[in-house]
Design brief:
248 residues, mainly alpha, Glycerol uptake facilitator protein
Length: 248
Amino acid sequence: MVTLNLALKEENTVQNYLYEFLGTAFLVLLGDGVCAGVLLNKTKTNGSGFIVIAFGWACAVLIPALMFTKSGAVFNPALTIALAAIGKLSWALVPGYVVAEMLGGLLGGILVWVMYKDHFAATEDGDTKLGVFCTGPAIRNYTNNFVSEFIATFVLVFTILGISQTSVGDVAAVGTFGVGAIILSCGVSLGGTTGYAMNPARDFSPRVAHAILPIPNKRNSDWGYSWIPVVAPICGAVVAALSATAIF
């Protein structure tokens, strides 16, 4: 989600946008890819469970974060906005970052379909197919679902910023691997209610991919719920960033 090179300005703008696009595409490809492997029929990893998904998502965030450090490895519009709100990212970069991240998420979702096309065809249940691309509530209660995503994203951003002020060892390396641990922890501890989206580019963009791709026997893309994994993470991220700034 973000390395510890947080004081990003407007240098290397095109490169930053490219890195955010590619990093988010890798994140969604690997993250939704593990969901596809676990959920879809006739895969070699079918039925391996939520713990595999949680570890897969942690690595899906860690790997591109290690590659694309020069852009800050944000890969998340909610975090992008939160960093700008506390002066860690130039507001001039925010529109380009958000567009790059959302387009990267869309590409990642499309590539998951390309990779697992035969397995989508072999899977009958529409809810399962949707679950590969985006999150949904275990119990549909929009108020509680919003709170769940708010809390999970608050923890994500607050802990990232907390790690960023450490002075132990190689701060950049510690911070990047720390983010992977944070994602894993959020998954196993906070993912049971809504699937811990915490990121509009991880949820809304692949949801669009689900809507536009020719997936056989798919259900609707659950647009009635889709605003929660967008609005709640933005709110949680901004409150977390302001709180971390005050405390640290």
